[in-house]
Amino acid sequence: MSSKYDGLKLENQICFPLYAASREVIKRYRPYLDALQLTYTQYIAMMVFWQEKSLSVKELGEKLFLDSGTLTPVLKSLEAKGYIIRSRSKADERVLEAKITEKGENLKEQAVTVPQSVAGCVKLDSTEVKQLYNLLYKVLDVLNED
Amino acid sequence: MSSKYDGLKLENQICFPLYAASREVIKRYRPYLDALQLTYTQYIAMMVFWQEKSLSVKELGEKLFLDSGTLTPVLKSLEAKGYIIRSRSKADERVLEAKITEKGENLKEQAVTVPQSVAGCVKLDSTEVKQLYNLLYKVLDVLNED
DNA sequence: CTAAATTAAATTGAGCACAACTTAATTATA
DNA sequence: TATAATTAAGTTGTGCTCAATTTAATTTAG
């Protein structure tokens, strides 16, 4: 039996399992990230720095889908821990460049086991992971177009 | 060329697109929910009340994957708006029962168009939505087992 | 060249999300 | 049946997340 209210059920809105699964997976990172003294947001920022070495707040924000309101305190915290250095661009004083330090590079060695450890909890086979991955990026790409 | 650090790339961790897509989709709800004077968390709580009419904080928390630390202020806010009433269970004074009001029921009429409006932004076809749905619940079910 | 528009970060304030702890009620056990 | 253990909510404190605003630097147009 269906009604005009069916769309208003939790189990009929894709957005709810997305939201719940996201939080539950992030929770699984916590014990491993606690050992590194990183929050999840600090961790994904460091993942970008391990690849890019140096970038502006705006560039980092585009990669993480976060704005300066979120990133400014996260970057200050990472700088306080000694993993990055923040400095104004000489070419354009509006731009803040964040650059990974030697200490930040070294942290990569300790972080390298984190993804495998968490992957063990999720228990999708490689085909399913690929499917999920493609669907999520399809959603992200469309929403990112605006 | 692959390295032992490949797992530490954003694009190789399922958790990142999950986190980013979740936030981006929720952002699409905002304009519609603003019109109802509801936040997203208040909205998913109301979705449960539209189905269940009355339940305890614990039961609601199990459905939403949220604890009393999050739900207590959300429920107080919904009560302040007149959509629910909170009262202690007579059978067990520890339990707080939250019950939808007439006004809360009426809100459903205004909310009924929200899911369709947002679904339009996501742009997955019905097969893809079903796939995504199944994969997300698979992740949730496994993580929920502990 | 200068005023207006744009841009990049930072700031502010509201509302989660969650861990850790507290309080009060109920249940289990010695 | 005392008391110990457990349970349900609430409280507290930290850290996002985001919208809206502010500040300062740069670019664009008149």
Radius of gyration of chain A: 18 Å
The total number of structural domains of chain A is 1
Describe the oligomeric state of these chains in a short phrase: homodimer
Residue runs with pLDDT of under 50 for 5 or more positions of chain A = none
Q: What is the CATH class designation of chain A?
A: Mainly Alpha
Pair with the biggest interface = A-B, 59 and 59 residues
What is the residue-mean pLDDT of chain A, rounded to a whole number? 94
The CA-CA distance between the termini of chain A, in Å, is: 37 Å
Number of strands of chain A: 3
Distinct helical segment count of chain A = 7
CATH-defined architecture of chain A: Orthogonal Bundle
Classify the fold: give the CATH topology of chain A: Arc Repressor Mutant, subunit A
Class from helix and strand fractions of chain A = mainly alpha
Biggest sheet strand line-up of chain A: 1-3-2
Which percent range fits the helix content of chain A?
55-70%
Order of helices and strands of chain A: HHEHHEEHHH
User: What would you give as the CATH superfamily of chain A?
Assistant: Winged helix-like DNA-binding domain superfamily/Winged helix DNA-binding domain
